Every structure is written in structure tokens, then in C-alpha cells.
Amino acid sequence: MANVNNLLLLPFLQGLSNEELLQIAGRVRFHFQSRSEREIIARQDSPCKGLIYVTSGEIAQIRRGDGGDYTLTEGLSAPYLVQPEALYGFRTRYSHTFIAASDVHLLEISKEDVRDTLIHYDAFRIGLLNYLSYAVQRTTSSLWRIAKSDIPSRFAHFLLQRSTRPAGRKQLSIRRSELAECLNTTKRQLVPVLTELEEKGLIETTRGKIEIPAFEKLLAYISQN
């Protein structure tokens, strides 16, 4: 079994005692796996059959727009738990695709083991409830957040509403004309804005793609201007 102290650092397992974790290890099947760079960990719209912990390495989280006209990719680091909210509820399918951005190690726990064993431990149950509460509160808050009328603010708001976290590297694959339509502006008005942000080192543009090296820096710049 992996080092106990490392497992106790994982989401929902924090707060368990060493004795509790050893009890769980005797009853729950821990599936330790690895993925090479660019291998798929979970695919958008596929069923969620359990918890997938990324215990080491980097992953990319990718979401296609509902119309399929653009994708947003986010870089995420271990330790990370892949969409636990998809485990139960009305839609038990992943809303994103998760790909290894480096060699990664995974720990998988089946839905049955979560239901029959883990959910009976207070630390796990409270961690899960806290996560779900945060997810609902964040979504509710974002619905009431109004972006400023200028194009840079609308661009940041567009990314923020679709991001898992307001920081880190993002890549938006989208045509300029499509992005302009999403921001309720024109391509002619949008291009100078993107050029200015690129000159300040906040984004990097190539044909059909916009890279945001550090989303938190883009948000900070726009909030100050």
C-alpha cells in the first residue's frame, strides 16, 4: 500500500486517523494505476464509476462548449480528485475530459466501496459535504456576478464562468469570430484588445488558440484597469 501519510493528504481522506485508514484499507479495494503523458484518465460524457485521485503529476482538464465550437483546457496538479460531484445525482457522467499532462499516478476507489464503507467515516462524509456545498455556493454566486461592460472584463468573465479555479494556465481554442459573438462584440473590436493583453504578457495567441499562462495575473490586471 502507498505511504499512509501520503494517502491522508488526499481530499476527503484528510482528517482520518492512521488506524481508520488501515481499517479502510482492509475493506476497500485501492486500485493504484499510472498513465503516461497524453493518455486519457476520464472522458467527457462517460459514466463516473468511482473516485479517481491523481496522487502525482500534472493533468489537463478539457471542456467542449455545448455547441462544440470551442474548448477550454485547464492545467491541474496533484493531489487532485477528478469530479467527485459526478458520482451521484441526476447526471452521473463527467462534464470534462481529463488527460495526463505528464506521467501520473492514480488511486481509484469504486462507487460501491464509497457507498458501503467510506461514507460511514465522519471525516470522509464531512469532506464530501463541504466539497458539494462549496460547489453549489460557487455556482450560485457566479450566476449573480455581473461583468463590467468593457471587452477585457467580458473576456475574463467568460473564462471565469467556465473555469474550475481562478488561477493557473488555461488554453482557449476558439475562432476570433466565435469569441467575439460570445462576448457580444465584433471581431474588429476584439482583436485590438487581445493584442494589448498579449503585449502585456498576459495572453499568448496563435491561430485559433489563446493561451493564458497565469489566469490570476489576467484577473488582477483587469480588476485594476
Verbal overview:
- This protein is of the alpha+beta class and 225 residues long.
- It has two domains: 4-143, Jelly Rolls (Sandwich), CATH 2.60.120; 146-223, Arc Repressor Mutant, subunit A.
- 37% of the residues lie in helices and 24% in strands.
- It is built from eight helices and eleven strands.
- The strands form two sheets. It has a seven-stranded antiparallel sheet, covered by helices on one side.
- Strand 4 (58-64) and strand 5 (71-77) form a beta hairpin.
- The protein is elongated, with a radius of gyration of 20 Å.
Strand ordering within the main sheet: 2-7-4-5-9-11-10
**Rg estimate, integer Å:** 20 Å
Distance between the termini: 52 Å
Work out the helicity level.
25-40%
Number of strands: 11
How large a portion of the residues is in β-strands, by DSSP E? 15-25%
Helix and strand sequence? HHEEEEEEEEHHHEHHEEH
CATH superfamily placement of the largest domain = Jelly Rolls
Number of domains: 2
List low-confidence stretches. Answer: none
The CATH class of the largest domain, by name, is Mainly Beta
Structural class: alpha+beta
CATH third-level topology of the largest domain: Jelly Rolls
The description of the largest β-sheet is:
7 strands, antiparallel
Which outline best applies?
elongated
Average of pLDDT: 92
SS summary, helix count: 8
Indicate the CATH architecture of the largest domain.
Sandwich
Task: Give me the oligomer status.
Answer: single chain
Give a brief rundown of this model.
By secondary structure, this protein is of the alpha+beta class. The chain contains eight helices and eleven strands.
